[in-house]
Amino acid sequence: MQSEPDRLFSRATFLASAGTLQEFPADGIREVAFVGRSNVGKSSAINALAGRRRLAFTAKAPGRTQTVNFYDLAGAARLVDLPGYGFARVSKSVREGWERLVGDYFGAGRPLAGVVVLMDARHPMTSHDERLLGWLNTFELRLLAVLTKSDKLSRSEGTVTLNRTRQNLAARCEETILFSSSSGAGVEQVRELLWRWVAAGSAAAANKRPPV
Question: For the domain that residue 174 is a member of, what is the CATH number?
Answer without folding.
Answer: 3.40.50.300
